[in-house]
Amino acid sequence: MRYFSDNAAPVCPAVLDAIGRANRLDTAYDGDALSRSLDAAFSDVFETPVSALWVSTGTAANALALAALCPPHGGVICHRDAHIQNDECGAPEFYTHGAKLLLADGDGAKLAPEGVRAVADAIVDDVHRVQPRALSITNATEYGRAYRPDEVGALGELARARGWGFHMDGARFANAVVHSGASPAALTWRAGVDILSFGFVKNGALSAEALVCFRPELAGLIAARRKRGGHLLSKGRYLAAQILAMLKDDLWLANARAANASAAAIAAVAGARLVHPVEANELFLRVSADEAAALRAQGFAFYDWEPGVVRLVTSWDQDVAAVAPIARAIAAL
Amino acid sequence: MRYFSDNAAPVCPAVLDAIGRANRLDTAYDGDALSRSLDAAFSDVFETPVSALWVSTGTAANALALAALCPPHGGVICHRDAHIQNDECGAPEFYTHGAKLLLADGDGAKLAPEGVRAVADAIVDDVHRVQPRALSITNATEYGRAYRPDEVGALGELARARGWGFHMDGARFANAVVHSGASPAALTWRAGVDILSFGFVKNGALSAEALVCFRPELAGLIAARRKRGGHLLSKGRYLAAQILAMLKDDLWLANARAANASAAAIAAVAGARLVHPVEANELFLRVSADEAAALRAQGFAFYDWEPGVVRLVTSWDQDVAAVAPIARAIAAL
Amino acid sequence: MRYFSDNAAPVCPAVLDAIGRANRLDTAYDGDALSRSLDAAFSDVFETPVSALWVSTGTAANALALAALCPPHGGVICHRDAHIQNDECGAPEFYTHGAKLLLADGDGAKLAPEGVRAVADAIVDDVHRVQPRALSITNATEYGRAYRPDEVGALGELARARGWGFHMDGARFANAVVHSGASPAALTWRAGVDILSFGFVKNGALSAEALVCFRPELAGLIAARRKRGGHLLSKGRYLAAQILAMLKDDLWLANARAANASAAAIAAVAGARLVHPVEANELFLRVSADEAAALRAQGFAFYDWEPGVVRLVTSWDQDVAAVAPIARAIAAL
Amino acid sequence: MRYFSDNAAPVCPAVLDAIGRANRLDTAYDGDALSRSLDAAFSDVFETPVSALWVSTGTAANALALAALCPPHGGVICHRDAHIQNDECGAPEFYTHGAKLLLADGDGAKLAPEGVRAVADAIVDDVHRVQPRALSITNATEYGRAYRPDEVGALGELARARGWGFHMDGARFANAVVHSGASPAALTWRAGVDILSFGFVKNGALSAEALVCFRPELAGLIAARRKRGGHLLSKGRYLAAQILAMLKDDLWLANARAANASAAAIAAVAGARLVHPVEANELFLRVSADEAAALRAQGFAFYDWEPGVVRLVTSWDQDVAAVAPIARAIAAL
Q1: C40: domain CATH number?
Q2: Residues B39, B41, B42, B43: is their CA dihedral positive or negative?
Q3: Nearest to D10 among C25, C89, C95 (CB)
Q4: Dist. CA B212–CA B43, nearest whole Å
């Protein structure tokens, strides 16, 4: 009955179990065995040697990543509707020490090279202007759109040619991977991504996200800034445990698959109400105020996105059967 | 057998249980019922209306508190050996946007008015110098010393007279309360403290600390900066649950009592080896390198503080019986 | 023959003379008699008690003003084409410690309440979003448009109602005053402006701008941040001397009158080429690449603003006779 | 009669003349011919290719240099009495975004390798501590002491071995060069210095200091941050003109020679009153309160450094004859 946010969903039992199993004496901070195993675990997932650090929020992950890629006097090109622009209370500006977000356009909060170039090419290359130094995309996007590997690759190629760092906000990376059918590698480093904010909390974890550095030399810098940002938890093993539980047996993919399937089931009945194609676990529906009220009267909770549009988010714990009532209710509007 | 750090101890079962019980659908961030109950819970503990926010590390708590009390161009007077100076990788400078820590002296990392005045009075009051704007003390201190209410009050009086904010780093506040026998109120706001970093993680929690604002009007500012620092967890109810579990039936005091008693039991046999009086759960012992090696050969783990001195920390899960072996081993050196 | 920038113009002889006359022993920094007389001099100009500080660039003036009005986690609403957004390499973000510029639209880089409200009202008032805390306008604007007192006042009223600080970038304030015929007071504090960056360099000074605080209690804060920004010159009397020379006998108005008249003389022949009404000393002309080349071949220097548009700026040292050649050349295109 | 500060001295006539000669149309900012000639002029002085940028204060020069050498999470080792620590209102922390100044000891505000190592070696190399990343010395020091080339070289060797940047605050570099008899090259890059803040204002300029980068690749970064700090003056040619006038015919050395000789003449009669050897243009004298009053009654102005000690500073415009009266007065105390 709840489609307000995947952040409102419970924690996946396997994650809670892993926390319980981690509940023994171990070294503090990130010196414990679980934390030290993250590099290997993510290197397996991404089929290349990576460095990975836990943090406790996606905002911290994004801001630390951007700070590693963009100097204070630089700019980060991102979509006008990006989470880093609109939903992080200026965390990117805080961690980068005042870098400017340079806002690009694109359907469904997706960026493509032409939109990025339109921003970059309008900036005279002199000391008076903040120069672009990094590019950040969200996958899946804030409107639940997923990038294909070739789409990421085209942006990665542009970033490489311009000498920009390339960050991917993967708060819903799992949903994007499931939708695309591509490998995690294909969607990231093979397409030029330097750092991925790999989200787990929206997908069933309690408080653990990962920063995955495809340029491992950045990890030392990020580790210092993580501590400086107050994000080096003293009992870090409980974060590592969550992540390892999510990676084990591809639980992260199974959870995302459930959420995506649920969203697709609702989308199937929503027809012309859909503002964006449904490629992850978010639906944006054209619904009048009266219709919204009718749905709420039936017990469904969701977010008013803008006048005439509501947002529904499905979660890892909802299967197609669970969403049948809302699908029926929408069909019946 | 482990006296390395109270951060290395396991999580208290009651805290894990509370996390499990919180594992249901609820609003994201800090809008949930548990998070919303923190103000009331801490107001009870402190016998006055307070605003309280969860954060996931003591470093974040300290840095957010200092940023609320000191402008970027100001200074924070603290002890030369304070955690905020030596162990936070510059988090105070990061969150305050470059305020300067002004280092004072005092035995056992305790400050007294004369030490604070020695620093402040040497600073000419002009625009060339960074002017003191806040005072920060640690209770219990980094050397396990506890302040009495009148000692805090003397500093609070000084801070008030000079117009400074007054912060207490209470990473081991529970141990200080237990030792002093004073009320939480007497040790804080009645003595002039504006914001307390109230630590739970070293005392049995998993990842939850609290910022307790005795000037509740500061809470809105801190809430914005908490988000901006990436510290607004999306599933914040699991942090609130930990804190509420620690406060319930004074578990926080029981845990600290156990750790303090264990430390006292070791101290009782350490005699002249003690560098500082033992008032909390930390012991600093004069031990030669050979003696340290002998202890380690028996399986005891601890921290080399400086040449000839080791640090032992007891934890909430160790009672007097549990520390009998190390007490015997030290006595036998 | 030069219309590239008013920054390229020489220094006004009266200013150089004043520097020469200041060339004697005096107290360092801003303790000298000239610096100390600025408050009184500007209080005369503005018909109200103000505090005024010299700085050496308009960028510093703007950034210091914004830092006094907007906290790090706040936002400054300004025009999309504002100098603070496009031409200061992120100085506002640097001095505010990462506040976000929130970009509004309006013809000729002028803001009006509806454009400002469109930005502000789209921002949900919660901790996830950067909240507007200040409003900044440029007068005359980056396109040479001048505000009337009532236009400023409507914005000032909005700012007051929302609790925002209100800053005016007056790099070409003199030109705006001359055009409007209004008093400096009517265009600023009587219309709600809190701080004015009062420009002199583009109008004939060498290196002195003024920050005029209509809320004098802000001056102490700004003075500390000026020093911290490296802008407290040790021989500040030479900056004060420049400003006092510009204010003496309304030289600042005479200079701006000359530049405005010259621009008007060119505008009179430019007809439909004008992109914006000419209200100060800047002209934006629709000129083809061939036409631009033809003008340059005759020795005229100017800036290519965007494809098909060039910018001409007249200066204090150009009278109507001086600009007759370019006016003829444009008429002859 | 004035020994308060070399900042209080007038501007050297040659500098004023040069400003007058620069008073013609030229390109704005630092694109003018004079600004563009600085690299060559300083490359001559230092016998190696350097990049040089003007700024208008020594504080800005120092802070920009440190920001180029030290990341926000790093530390700068400097003397406890350094200008950057005590007299810049936190400008280093502002420009570096919160780096920590790590305070070392040494006689006369001079650092030597052992004092620097004592600070550095006490810092455990882990993520909890701010790690040293740069070393900064002042030459001549805040107490008027000058470094020999081998002394600088020993520090430079240490910095190189540890991977630190090495900055020299040369607010009174000219006085140090004159005293040492060494070449500018020998005192800087040949001894390992990366960036020099080359002071001119205390030595007769109006508002121009230079940042001399011996690692020219740093100049681009510094240029961006100079603009961002509001230090790119739009009429920069007037700063370049001052510097070029000071370099011409070694005026900078002649001025410093005069000031040093005057100080030496006073020192010659001060005997046991001298707190520090006089090697530049500053004297620190043990003088009782009554004696200080007696000197002031005769019209001499100076600074009370600390109880029982006063500071006298001679300037470029004072020759030995000019200081004879105060020398006599001191001898007569």
Answers
A1: 3.40.640.10
A2: positive
A3: C25
A4: 9
What are the residues whose beta carbons fall under 8 Å from the beta carbon of A100, sequence distance 6 or more? A74, A75, A76, A93, A130, C90, C93, C101
If asked whether residues D258 and D123 sit together in one domain, one would say no
Per-chain mean pLDDT for chain A: 97
In whole angstroms, what is the distance from residue C251 CA to residue B162 CA?
Answer: 46
A321, burial (CB in 10 Å: exposed 0-12, middle 13-18, buried 19+): exposed
Q: Is the peptide bond before A267 cis (omega within 30 degrees of 0)?
A: no
Q: Which residues of B touch D94 (CB under 8 A)?
A: 72-73, 97-98
Q: What is the DSSP string of D63-104?
A: HHHHHHHS-TTEEEEEETT-HHHHSSTTHHHHHHTSPEEEEE
What residues have CB less than 8 Å from B297, skipping those under 6 apart?
A: none
Chains contacting C with at least 3 CB pairs below 8 Å? A, B, D
Residue whose C-alpha is closest to residue B83's, from B140, B129, B32, B29: B140
Residues C116 and C206 in one domain: yes
Phi-psi map region of A125: left, alpha, beta (phi>0 left; psi -120 to 50 alpha): beta
How far is the C-alpha of B101 from the C-alpha of B134, rounded, in Å? 10
Q: Lowest mean pLDDT of B72-76, C24-28, C55-59, D31-35, name the range.
A: C24-28
Nearest chain D residue (CA) to B59: D128
Q: Do C127 and B73 touch (CB under 8 A)?
A: no
> What pLDDT is stored for residue C267 in this prediction?
98
Instruction: State pLDDT tens for residues B233-255.
Output: 999 999 999 999 999 999 999 99
What is the extent of the structural domain holding B297? 251-331
Q: Cβ of B206 and A19 within 8 Å?
A: yes
Tally of structural domains, chain A: 2
Per the CB < 8 A criterion, the answer to whether D29 and D233 are in contact is yes
Contact (Cβ atoms closer than 8 angstroms) between residue B74 and residue C220: no
> Is residue B85 domain-shared with residue B167, that is, in the same domain?
yes
Convert the pLDDT of each residue in C194-234 to its tens digit: 999 999 999 999 999 999 999 999 999 999 999 999 999 99
Say which residue the tokens 């020679």 belong to. D257
Residue C280 confidence class, pLDDT cut points 50, 70, 90:
very high
Distance of residue A222 Cα from the nearest chain B Cα, in angstroms: 12
Residue D19 has which token pair? 């400003």
Chains that touch D (3 or more CB pairs under 8 A): A, B, C
Band (pLDDT 50/70/90 cuts) for residue D26 is: confident
> Measured between beta carbons, which residues in chain C are less than 8 angstroms from residue A98?
90, 93-94, 96-98
- Per-residue confidence (pLDDT) for residue B243, from 0 to 100: 98
Question: A210-219 pLDDT, tens per residue?
Answer: 999 999 999 9
Each residue of B263-293: pLDDT tens digit? Answer: 999 999 999 999 999 999 999 999 999 999 9
**pLDDT for the residue numbered B2:** 85
Among A93, A94, A128, beta carbon nearest to C89: A128
With CB atoms and an 8 Å threshold, state whether C27 touches D8: yes
The mean pLDDT value of chain C amounts to 97
Q: Does the beta-carbon distance from B127 to C224 stay under 8 Å?
A: yes
Residue B281 belongs to domain with CATH number: 3.90.1150.10
User: Are C25 and C83 found together in one domain?
Assistant: yes
Note whether D98 contacts B98, CB cutoff 8 Å: yes
Which ipTM value was assigned to this complex? 0.96
With an 8 Å Cβ cutoff, are B98 and D100 in contact? Answer: no
**Cβ pairs B/C, distance under 8 A:** 31
Q: Do C230 and D91 touch (CB under 8 A)?
A: yes
B207: nearest CB among A11, A61, A235: A235
What would the mean pLDDT of A261-286 be, rounded to a whole number? 97
Residue B125 shares a structural domain with residue B201: yes
The answer to whether residue A312 sits within a structural domain is: yes
Give ∠ CA A101-B28-A38 in degrees, rounded to 5. 70
